[in-house]
Amino acid sequence: MPGKLTIVSDFVCPYCYWLEALLDRLEEPPEVTHVPFQLTEPPEPRVDVWNDPVRRARYAETLGPACQAQGVEMHLPPRVIPRPYTDLAFQGWCFAEERGRGEPFYRAVFRAYFVEERDIGDPAVLTELAEGCGLPGENFRTALETGAYAETVRRESRLSREALGIRMVPTILAGDKRLEGFVPDLDALQAWLDEVRREA
């Protein structure tokens, strides 16, 4: 298995959530570092994916059969109108990372949006998720209200776009190799990881 992977993703990207599900199914899951990439950054207008027939058709064609085959529960798309910004969710993740709870919080945010159809742009929702991961809710909420991690998220977002040259999510980076976009199944992911290992 290759060394640490860098995965660039956004909490509202269904292909990113699908990738996380595939990684969980690997016999030897790799060590992963996450980097944020916001599909819609404030003050850009938020989009309504629920009422978008083009996205619905694309998700049904690509992710629908894949999720059914792997038993992955996911609303395609979730009924959250409009699609939330994810800057606060990433700020919450930074808070969780500093306290050793980054991974469970990351998973909780994805599940809240794609399985439970909750608004992950709502500080109250994020605080509840944080508390469910064993984080202090009052301190977490204060960090969101004061923007304690806002600059960190902005810096990481610039890194993903400018330094890493990210143009789509998910993107997996392993050294100078990258895998971009929809990974159709576990075999495709494993084949890419095997190639990375052989060339390492």
From TrEMBL:
SUPFAM superfamilies to which the protein is assigned, alphabetical: Thioredoxin-like
Domain DSBA-like thioredoxin: 5-189
InterPro entries: DSBA-like_thioredoxin_dom, Thioredoxin-like_sf
Gene3D superfamilies named among the record's database cross-references: Glutaredoxin
Pfam families with a match to the protein in the record: DSBA
Annotated protein name in UniProt: DsbA family protein
Source organism of this protein record: Oscillibacter valericigenes
